[in-house]
């Protein structure tokens, strides 16, 4: 296979295969680079940067297999100095987490496997340690949980309570839709600032709330008694 064919097979937006580094019966190592017209999105501020280029680095990430070979991508990532805080950030790549060694689609494959088998068996199938499988699966689950909180879920009748999730007074603040009997939001901590984040995220939807059941905790009462955001 030539680099153009591999570019089409990989189908990574705005990236192309520039070199086949190595090819064995079990592994394929490919160097990929951004196309010239690909804008650099700052992982700090999220804006497109056309100036302030600092340098580039190469990271190695695993992607979905091709022809029963494990695929490792050597990805060129550009670094820019952000004009907002003058710090240097690596560009944001949509199909790759900032610090991950795996593409999102590979991580989703791991997540699907762990839904039907154990971490150990999934790791054996993929050639990964079961602890690595656990960390990949956890990352995907956390990402999915965050996506479900966009936009922040609202309800007409709420209940707010704290729950201990770990020893040594580690608590979560739970917001419950009492009509559906469903936890719709939570965050670590039980101070008023934690519940404030929920109300602030709701914005104008705060005005739709008709009742909030509380257990008498002063920090929750102070947050709930504030007027909704204007």
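Sequence proposed for the structure above (230 residues):
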């Amino acid at each position: 296979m030539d680099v153009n064919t591999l570019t089409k097979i990989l189908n990574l937006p705005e990236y192309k295969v520039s070199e086949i580094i190595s090819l064995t019966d079990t592994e394929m190592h490919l160097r990929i680079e951004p196309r010239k017209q690909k804008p650099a999105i700052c992982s700090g501020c999220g804006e497109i940067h056309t100036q302030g280029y600092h340098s580039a680095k190469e990271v190695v990430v695993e992607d979905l297999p091709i022809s029963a070979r494990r695929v490792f991508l050597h990805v060129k990532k550009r670094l820019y100095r952000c004009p907002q805080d003058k710090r240097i950030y690596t560009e944001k790549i949509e199909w790759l987490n900032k610090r991950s060694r795996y593409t999102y689609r590979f991580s989703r494959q791991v997540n699907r496997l762990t839904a039907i088998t154990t971490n150990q068996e999934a790791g054996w199938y993929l050639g990964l340690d079961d602890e690595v499988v656990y960390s990949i699966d956890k990352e995907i689950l956390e990402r999915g949980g965050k996506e479900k909180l966009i936009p922040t879920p609202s309800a007409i009748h709420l209940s707010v309570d704290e729950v201990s999730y770990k020893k040594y007074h580690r608590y979560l603040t739970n917001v419950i839709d009492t009509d559906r009997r469903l936890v719709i939001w939570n965050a670590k901590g039980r101070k008023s600032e934690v519940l404030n984040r929920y109300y602030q995220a709701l914005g104008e939807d705060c005005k739709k709330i008709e009742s909030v059941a509380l257990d008498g905790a002063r920090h929750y009462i102070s947050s709930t008694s504030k007027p909704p955001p204007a």
